[in-house]
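Milestone 3.1: sequence recovery, worked example.
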């Protein structure tokens, strides 16, 4: 029997997550586990209760919701030996998708957690992102978005409809009317790697953003490296042509797209080279304005998924 802390975002899945979270807890209890309900009305309260439960003793932390809840869980357990289980109940669910967690089958998602508890967690990389003064730091498991992709993410987070992953498509078309190439400077492993205008910059540990956009199709979550995807300065017409290819991952063959790799990446704004980039997002959540430094930490995260 394992002691499992379970926290569910009641607003995920357009409000359906709460009932699904209750059912998931019942399934885990029926399998003989002790379940500690850590859900709360807001993320700040949930974070406080989770940290206290970790101190009191858990065998695993289980989060139910979208990428926002996964992001919360990652920031509790990264750098520790406590494993994280994911029940995808939200809109994007990109980290769950990359890990192979079933996204529309609650029973199957719980079985994945059960198998992880039985056979042991998978050890993967996580990314520590800080501002350049190191006054702020947090972890992410998937992708940092810092250009047009971040603007689309921010827009999708405030749209009320449509439901599900198609909200990102609506957000994309709304943002196109505001698009201008942004100015960036990018250092990789201490060396200047890019200095120009660009449509987007993604610093990827995992491959997916925005509900299945394969922004970095060759990224691996356990290779100790980050894939830096840069779409150079393109017109709105070219962006309209190239961006839909992100869903298949074929955009990286376009001549305007560059993919670089490294362990430590610093992304800086260069307003003298283009428009000021929007606030960056990690795992679908706002992290803040540039400049930001991303450092891949190999083996920093244990997850109850994705080892098969």
């Amino acid at each position: 029997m394992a002691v499992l802390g379970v926290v569910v975002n009641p607003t995920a899945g357009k409000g359906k997550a709460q009932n699904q979270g209750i059912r998931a807890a019942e399934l885990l209890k029926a399998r003989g586990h002790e379940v500690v309900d850590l859900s709360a009305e807001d993320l700040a309260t949930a974070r406080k209760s989770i940290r206290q439960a970790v101190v009191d003793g858990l065998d695993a932390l289980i989060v139910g919701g979208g990428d926002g809840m996964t992001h919360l869980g990652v920031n509790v357990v990264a750098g520790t030996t406590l494993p994280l289980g994911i029940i995808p109940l939200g809109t994007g669910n990109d980290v769950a998708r990359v890990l192979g967690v079933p996204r529309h089958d609650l029973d199957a998602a719980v079985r994945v957690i059960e198998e992880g508890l039985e056979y042991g967690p998978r050890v993967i990389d996580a990314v520590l992102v800080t501002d350049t003064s190191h006054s702020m730091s947090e972890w992410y498991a998937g992708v940092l978005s810092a250009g047009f992709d971040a603007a689309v993410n921010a827009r999708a987070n405030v749209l009320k409809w449509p439901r599900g992953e198609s909200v990102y498509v609506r957000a994309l078309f709304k943002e196109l009317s505001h698009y201008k190439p942004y100015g960036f400077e990018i250092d990789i492993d201490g060396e200047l790697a890019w200095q120009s205008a660009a449509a987007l910059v993604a610093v990827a540990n995992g491959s997916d953003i925005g509900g299945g956009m394969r922004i970095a199709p060759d990224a691996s979550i356990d290779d100790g490296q980050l894939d830096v995807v840069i779409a150079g300065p393109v017109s709105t017409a070219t962006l309209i042509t190239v961006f839909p290819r992100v869903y298949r991952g074929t955009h990286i063959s376009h001549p305007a797209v560059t993919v670089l790799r490294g362990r430590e990446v610093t992304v800086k704004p260069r307003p003298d080279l283009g428009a000021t980039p929007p606030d960056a997002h990690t795992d679908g959540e706002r992290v803040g304005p540039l400049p930001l430094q991303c450092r891949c930490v190999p083996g920093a995260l244990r997850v109850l998924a994705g080892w098969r």
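DSSP finds eight helices and 16 strands in the chain. The chain has a mean pLDDT of 90.
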